[in-house]
Amino acid sequence: KKYIDESSERKQLYNEVIELKGNIRVFCRCRPLNQAEIANGSSSVVEFDSSLENELQIVSSDSSKKQFKYDHVFKPEDSQEAVFAQTKPIVTSVLDGYNVCIFAYGQTGTGKTFTMEGPPENRGVNYRTLEELFRNSKERNGVMRYELLVSMLEVYNEKIRDLLVDSNQPSKKLEIKQAAEGTQEVPGLTEAHVYGTEEVWELLKSGGRARSVGSTNANELSSRSHCLLRVTVKGENLINGQKTRSHLWLVDLAGSERVGKIEVEGERLKESQFINKSLSALGDVISALATKSGHIPYRNSKLTHMLQSSLGGDCKTLMFVQISPSSADLGETICSLNFASRVRGIESGPARKQA
Ligand code: ADP
Question: I want to staple 221 with a disulfide (CB 3.0 to 4.6 A). Which of 117, 211, 215, 241 is the partner?
Answer without folding.
Answer: 215
